[in-house]
Queue: 3 jobs
Job 1
Amino acid sequence: MSLEVIEPATEQVLASLPQAGVEETDAAVARAKAAFPSWRAVSPPDRAMLLRRLADALESELETLALLEARNAGKPIGDARGEMGMVVDTFRYYAGAPERLLGDTIPVAGGIDMTFREPLGVVALIVPWNFPLAISAWKLGPALAAGNTVVLKPAELTPLTAIEFERIAVTAGLPEDVVNVVVGPGRVVGERLVAHPDVAKVAFTGSTEVGSRIAAVAAASIKRVTLELGGKSANVVFADADLERAAAAAPMSVFANAGQDCCARSRILVQRSAYDEFMALLTGHVEALRVGDPLDPETEIGPLISAGQRASVSSYLEDGAPVAIRGNAPDGPGYWLAPAVLAPISNSDRAAREEIFGPIACVIPFEDEADAIAIANDTVYGLSGSIWTRDGARALRVARAIDTGVLSINSNNSVRVSTPFGGFKQSGIGRELGPHALEHYTELKNVYYATEDS
Ligand code: NAD
């Protein structure tokens, strides 16, 4: 059965592809397994050189990849270019890793004790549709640098850049079968990868629901997993903050990528004494957002990924939802939805508790620092968040008290190639990016060498 890939901005078929099943998945794992011994044996400088060449090859096709991603995921072309730039940077960053996978020597009696970071083998990478190639690169970079071979399963809705990636990897000189892309349904291809005895580890990004299922299936074989899951992050604005800056930055911290972002600061917590002023400032910024054709360089927000996603997100605007601010959206074909701000909202309301994954923000008033921390932490998630205040000591106190993996102070920017990314609580297990990701793609080995002259 073939897979029809739809362009969200036009609702037209963008591509029609063959879908893999269990048999094709097993074949991809077998290829990756066969390629592993020689890939792990590539010398560290040579592996580093191949990753640098891969980065160069991706950079030379950046514009084509960005256009493909923009059309397939419905994301603004400017965002798509930024994401492809991050893909290139990710491989450049991890090109430094093969020669820096250092071990320890540990003082012991009678000999020398040393540690090594060994590759795991075949790693399955299962990714979502919101940042298709960027999230793949976060996994591919450290996995390949550490000497693993991979099977990459893109989301059914957005497989196109992953397919191009496989081609570019071979063009750049990576040996055949080090990277294997399998396009097919999560329930079939994904589940088979998680259960497969020859897959050593699963690196997953997606919903908490599917992540929980993957952890359960992986447990049967004590398979390693890293999980990057959902979020419901708080953007905490204290009354002493630069309110104009905070209000100007808040909309795109929820509505970027049409709100389909695990890091979305979808709960805006505003100190009650500054509530009216903040809302007045926020209104102008939300109404000015440019929602429209992803291929127009002026566009800030594109359509949602699918009709199903729009229906699910729209349900939060029904039943007398307190829509305080509404942006605009085009008419006609495409899965459009105008950004909306619900305010004031209680943290116990459904819209404040569930990950909406669309362009809807909730504004929740709070009284004081303790109240802000309590509300920020009153969620099953713990992925990202922001703190806006001019009081430096308070910023750090609150940052330490919020149970979340990635925070920013007087900024909503929390994803960088060189710094760790990942969640507390039901937002996940493990970290991606930065130096820490490598720990999750290697196994620590301890070797003792007796040196006493008997
Ligand atoms: P999803 O969980 O439905 O699917 C993600 C991937 O898992 C897809 O490739 C899918 O085919 C596959 N899959 C589905 N069922 C499977 C199964 N039973 N076994 C194995 N694989 C299976 O998520 P989605 O709808 O594509 O993406 C949206 C979700 O992803 C949101 O919850 C969002 O918060 C989360 N997300 C998290 C991060 C992060 O880094 N924390 C980043 C982006 C998205």
Job 2
Amino acid sequence: MSILGLRRALDAPVTTLPKIKAPDVNRLHKLGIETIRDLLLTLPFGWETYGEPIPIASLIVGVQSTVVGTVMSIAPKITKYKRMKLTEATIRDDSGARLRVAWFNQPFVAKQLHKGDRVAVAGLVKDGYGMLEMQNPHHERLDQNEESEPSRVGGLMPKYHLVDGLSSKKIAGWIESTLPLASQLEDLLPERVRERHHLVPVAEAVRLGHRPDTFDEWREARRRMAFAELFELQAAFALMRASIAAEPATPIPYRQEVIDAFKNGLAFELTRAQRRSTWEAFQDMEKAMPMNRLLNGDVGSGKTAVAAACVAMAHAAGLQSVVMAPTEILARQHLRSFRAYLEESFPGLTVELLVSTQSAAERRRVRAAAASGHCALVVGTHALIEEDVEFTDLGLAVVDEQHRFGTRQRELLRAKGRGRPHFLAMTATPIPRTLALALYGEMSVSVIDEQPPGRTPVETEVVEPEQRGRAYDLVREQVRSGRQAFVICPLIEESELVVARSATAEFERLKKDVFPDLRMGLVHGRLKEKDEVMRAFVAGEVQVLVATAVVEVGVDVPNATVMMIEGADRFGLAQLHQFRGRVGRGAGQSHCLLLTDDPSEPALNRLSLLTRIRDGFKLAEEDMQIRGMGELMGPRQHGMTDVAMQALRQPELLSEVRQEAESLLESDPGYDQNPLLKAAVARRLELTSIS
Ligand code: ADP
Ligand code: MG
């Protein structure tokens, strides 16, 4: 095949793999593997080791081991009881000892191995009624030659990320047949960067990553892949920063009397973290380069007040502001807060709401007020961008729960300024610093790592399956005393339809069997009337709200005192912590109940962290250590592979990558002479949820 042909072979869809069937194609797609190139670039995340072959006589029950011997008999069978297909074989080693081997649901093994073959098998040793046995071991046929050693079995067996129906062995097989194409993989890392950081070329990394001789080789391969991926991302960020900096913004000068008036109008003292974040934002806004800042603070840490201070400062400079929230309920809540924080202290500062459920006349009135400059702040939902709202002079754009919006939506909001408005994004997901740099590298980050004083901590408990009744009792008792409760349904990794169905089923069950006497409501992503249900909950008409994890429950309902989370072991600690933040907002004692499906010790230990730690950032760090960075955000949100995520555990690596990416933009030959990197960066800018 010509080189061009090989390149094309790399871009060929996985359907062209030898002997692949449609279900496996779908499974690969689920893993994000569409082409042969994707397949090759997906390295194993770990290895199983079985050690060097040992004699059958020295096998120990319960230990992973490797045996080399001769197949004495092999035949497909059907099991008596469950009618399962099975391949059964007996293997004899050179000393004459025998081992029974059974492969369940793998009838094809009987076609691959034959009587008299020399094989290596590796797996867990079991006691098979008087004779030692291995079930579903890895196997490899060896040359007849006595000296031949197994190349994989006994050495290293790759572990790939899987979905149901796939096995690492299957993937290893496909890799085997496509690995020769690796030599055609193009390298987007400039050679001098590779040299400086001792990174192997991509073709080599792929070969070593899939077929290393030692762990170190595999680690080298992973390091290289992680570096390249982070490099791509950071190059994208560097470009974005450069393009943002190139568009001027109107400077908003700092004025002491404005912040004094703002503080005087508040019913509370700002916390130290709020003051620091406000100060950081003010410093950005004074520049002619647009602010691009992420305000990261736990639920309830008081992000709104920081945003309000910025709005006040913009207003004093004669500029308008806009605040976009993901749901109408949140937008209405913001309307109340911003008015409370601002309208009294700043008489000319009017705040208006724009959401799609308002009457046409009302929306027209708000649009006119924004366009004429009479209104200083418009708070709203997507309607802000859909309805073509115009401003006289927009100086500041704020987005709440920024991960709920796509890149395009945020861009549309920013485009409403004459130049570029200063931009403040808020998120309640506590992100450790390294991860913030990796994910939102184009933004500066302010952290509010302190809660306002006087909050009663939420009492958090892990509830094991057999104590479920106790959890229901608590819900009932709280509702009887006039409080409200949330019930969060487990996270199911399926379609929204499946999630909706299971939430509906759980809702029906609770209503019928558990709380027939209580007023219950259900919200899930597919429900048309979800705003109506939320409103009823906020108004206290609904006492127990059953919700799916995907639905926004980010509302302030101080009367809610119970947060009950089903299948808590399936969530990341950071996410559980966010749910917990929905209660404990009023004066009463609140409770968070973590129900587990999996009462295993590691699961319980992990959940018990929540009972001890109240700081979202600490929890995020802990979770990162236990489950890895990827889990923190949920796989869909970050668009990074686990290789890159793991590499983030070493903060030095990220800063090296950032430096290289920065300097590439200034050097020659640089970014513009690297079409591969350019294409990769363009793809990333589209894919990732970076702003
Ligand atoms: P979040 O960061 O989750 O958006 P909010 O801005 O909604 O938090 O604030 C949560 C609650 O805390 C609000 O009722 C707000 O008025 C109150 N709050 C904010 N800052 C302080 C403070 N420094 N002291 C006391 N209460 C505060
Ligand atoms: Mg908020």
Job 3
Amino acid sequence: MSRDSDITINVINPNMTETMTELIAKAAQASAGQRTRIVGRTARTGAASIEGHYDEAIAAVGLLREVQAGDADGCHAHVIACFGDPGLLAARELSAAPVLGIAEAAMHAASFVATHFSIVTTLSRTKVIAEHLVRNYGMEHHCRKVRAVDVAVLDLDKPEAHVRGILLDECRDALRQDGIGAIVLGCAGMADLARDLSTELGIPVIDGVAAAVRFAEALVGLGLKTSKHGDLAFPLPKVRTPL
Ligand code: 2AL
């Protein structure tokens, strides 16, 4: 069993935008235990931002490559820092270390602190991705609504996009209309906003990067690894395109 101080977490941004990886790694380190080391990695192939099914599909291979790199470096756990959790189950097949998706982590965290939550994501076209995940993760009883602010992922850090104000308005609408006790932020690029929004709104606002990092620490601390019995066993040896 590892102590907190021994843990290295591989936080992978599956989109190709380095500035976003920096924001994510900073948020991950800020939420991590004092002596947990965060390694931020960026996918080298795929898309600049992930905002649809096609982007998710082409991002998956780049993501898997960074899982493999993290394993080679001896990381104790992996975090997929994109709200669609692209390639999550494939990553769990590839690695024996725990792999957490930020959507799955955020929804579980929300369900621990509120009976109902809503998700506030980026573009409307990505809502269906979050809705599918809600069903896949058995969260239909907890998630009241998936909302979108129609800000593109790569505009989130642009001052002229006024993201804080737009998110606050959407969260306030969710609070008034959805019968919820918590908000889940639906993009890794919103990681730096959760704390401030939570203070402003007076309810838990959950960033999946922080939640996944803390859950990863807990799983490593418990000595739990990804099961290699059944569907998450290492991929069968066969002819394949190398990663
Ligand atoms: C995301 C995310 O977290 N990173 C990315 O590129 N796209 N999710 C989203 N809903 O826009």
